[in-house]
Write a structure and sequence with these properties.
It is built from 1 helix and 10 strands, in the order αββββββββββ. The chain has one helix at about 10-60; strands at about 75-85, 95-105, 110-120, 120-125, 140-145, 150-155, 160-170, 170-180, 185-190, 195-200. It is elongated, with a radius of gyration of 24 Å. The relative contact order is 0.16.
């Protein structure tokens, strides 16, 4: 009868060293791949939400012409961007939240969420030369909607109590980037010609 010969300590050490090397290569690659996938997903969803916003505004002719001086017409539809300012009630960790909202002054709350995108691993920032996000650090929420000529209207605060109102007729870019640890990014390009034009690069 043959007796089973076990592994020596040296053989086990070699196997463990090989496993450690494989893990040292695989784990960073997996984490980088996960961050890229998160950025791609948020950028694609956000671009689709902007297109949907324009379609709703355009099909219902609910363009925003509001001004505090005249108290003019407000759109029904907006995108609200809370950029890394919403803390988790348990962990306190902050996350990005993007919402497609319908405004109805007769309801409570007046901002009815139609769609929502959330991420703890991704944030938004203005691309160089762009300023559509009022506060990339996320201290205030940014709202965007469309005017009848296809221009993008941006403001902060709330639909009724607006601050930092600005209209953008030129191309603007928003970058979607990981919160940390990677230079990978996707750029969402918003253009007023043709109206509602959105592209992800």
């Amino acid at each position: 009868m043959k007796r089973f010969k076990g592994f020596t300590l040296q053989e086990m050490a070699i196997v463990l060293a090989i496993l450690a090397i494989l893990l040292a290569i695989a784990v960073p690659n997996y984490l980088a791949m996960k961050k890229r996938a998160d950025v791609d997903s948020i950028a694609t969803q956000f671009a689709a939400m902007i297109r949907e916003l324009y379609e709703k505004v355009d099909s219902e002719m609910e363009y925003d012409t509001y001004s505090s001086a005249t108290g003019g017409h407000m759109s029904k539809y907006y995108i609200r961007i809370d950029n890394r300012q919403i803390p988790d009630p348990v962990t306190g960790e902050k996350s990005l939240k993007i919402q497609l909202i319908k405004f109805d002054a007769t309801s409570t709350p007046s901002e009815i969420v139609l769609k929502e995108i959330k991420s703890k691993t991704v944030k938004l920032q203005n691309a160089p030369g762009s300023s559509i996000l009022m506060d990339s650090a996320g201290a205030v929420a940014t709202y965007i909607t469309f005017k009848s000529n296809g221009e993008i209207k941006r403001f902060t605060g709330s639909v009724l109590a607006r601050g930092n109102v600005e209209t953008f007729s030129a191309q603007n870019r928003i970058e979607v980037i990981p919160v940390s640890g990677s230079n990978y990014k996707k750029t969402i390009i918003l253009d007023s010609v043709p109206p509602g034009s959105v592209e992800v690069q």
